[in-house]
Write a structure and sequence with these properties.
By secondary structure, the chain is α/β, with parallel strands linked by helices. It contains eleven helices and twelve strands. Helices cover 42% and strands 13% of the residues. The strands form three sheets. A seven-stranded mixed β-sheet has the order 1-9-8-5-4-2-3, sandwiched between helices. The radius of gyration is 21 Å and the shape is globular. The structure holds pyridoxal-5'-phosphate. Pfam families: DegT_DnrJ_EryC1.
């Protein structure tokens, strides 16, 4: 059994994907060109925003967004304590300070009350300017943007939605990657919408930010590539990756999000009352980058993972370590924020195999090993 079966997906889409790759090679247009602009238009239409700018990966996408806002030394940027390293790394790369915020135990996403506590802690400390909040759509579920927007507005913060895992999610039928003042995603192969290498994208309705990002991602270009008006970076999506994403986006919109939701519902039906299954709040839709259960203790979680492994069932621990505990961030973050939820989650979470092509038999098998392990 595969954790995320990209081979099955390729078998389903092989003709279209191969055709796209052949076309790019035949055209010899490997950077930019019509595949990239066609993809950007389709992504923007899917998400429901005005601009989509593709780039090299999801980490660059976050960094480019912060660059467009001129974030740097003296800025405090609020990041969930329970996320992938990139969400905080990009803040530190630019010389700003990541301030970590605890998450909600049910949804794994940024807790609005903890955010407000972190902001008031930074204000009381008086050294940094609270500037941006980066809510992460963890495991495919959009963060609680309704609550976070209220807090952000109260303190004049911009919202950068890290939708690297959240593409395809929804709140009240509005798509993920449309909730931030700028939003980003990643096309890393294992993400909900993945390419066959690295890739990323930035979404916004803000014309000025979109134009700045288009400049920053090509060496700070001005009117053309050899007119450089600011220091930028080289971050582009290859034409081959754009070609691969075109049929993948069509399948994603047509059936993959629905199918992965069916698989998740099946897990929940089989495991409810036996372990803590994921909680999707009313009106929210997850694109299930992960299906993550919670056990009672670290010992129980680790023993279950070992038991699954014995039966050749892959599982992953996302994430074993809190951001505030990462050595790279040491010395920062003492604003009186309590990280007890993240601390507990790092010890008790376990992500199970899930993807749109998983069979009912595989879901049944995983669930029965878990039930047997827990003596049910
Ligand atoms: C994967 C991921 C990123 C980074 O994406 P890359 O394309 O790997 O650079 C950023 N944030 C989160 C939450 C992620 O899961």
């Amino acid at each position: 059994m595969e954790f995320r079966d990209l081979k099955k997906q390729y078998a389903a889409l092989k003709n279209d994907i191969d055709h796209q790759i052949d076309e790019v090679i035949a055209s010899s247009r490997f950077i930019g060109g019509s595949k990239v602009s066609e993809l950007e238009e389709k992504l923007a239409a899917y998400v429901g925003v005005k601009h989509c700018v593709t780039c090299g990966n999801g980490t660059d996408a976050l960094e480019l967004a912060l660059m467009a806002w001129g974030i740097g030394e003296g800025d405090a940027v609020f990041v969930p304590d329970f996320t992938f390293f990139s969400s905080g790394e990009v803040v530190a790369i630019l010389g700003a300070t990541p301030v970590f915020v605890d998450v909600d135990e049910d949804t794994f996403n940024m807790d609005a009350a903890s955010l407000e506590k972190a902001i008031t802690g930074v204000v009381a400390d008086g050294k940094l300017r609270p500037s941006v909040v980066i809510p992460v759509d963890l495991f495919g579920l959009p963060a609680n943007f309704l609550e976070i927007r209220k807090v952000a507005d109260k303190y004049g913060l911009k919202i950068l939605e890290d939708g690297a895992q959240g593409f395809g999610g929804e709140i009240n039928r509005q798509k993920a990657c449309s909730f931030g003042d700028i939003s980003t995603t990643s096309f890393f192969p294992a993400k909900p919408l993945g390419c066959y290498g690295d890739g990323g994208a930035i979404f916004t309705n803000d014309d000025e930010a979109a134009e700045l990002i288009r400049s920053y991602c090509v060496h700070g270009k001005g009117k053309m590539k050899y007119d450089n008006v600011r220091i930028g970076m080289n971050s582009r999506l290859d034409s081959i990756q754009a070609g691969i994403l075109l049929p993948k986006l069509a399948a994603f919109a047509e059936y993959e999000v629905a199918d992965v939701n069916r698989a998740a519902a099946k897990y929940t039906e089989l495991l409810k009352g036996i372990v803590a299954t994921p909680i999707i709040p009313e009106g929210f839709l997850s694109s299930w980058a992960q299906y993550t259960i919670r056990l009672e203790s670290r010992e129980q979680r680790d023993a279950l993972q070992a038991c699954l492994k014995e039966r050749s069932i892959p599982s992953m621990i996302y994430y074993p370590k809190q951001m505030h505990n990462q050595e790279a961030f040491s010395g920062e973050n003492d604003y009186g924020v309590d990280y007890s939820v993240t601390n507990r989650l790092c010890d008790t979470v376990l992500s199970l195999p899930i993807h749109p092509y998983i069979s009912d038999d595989d879901v049944n098998e995983v669930a029965s090993v878990i039930k047997e392990f827990l003596g049910q």
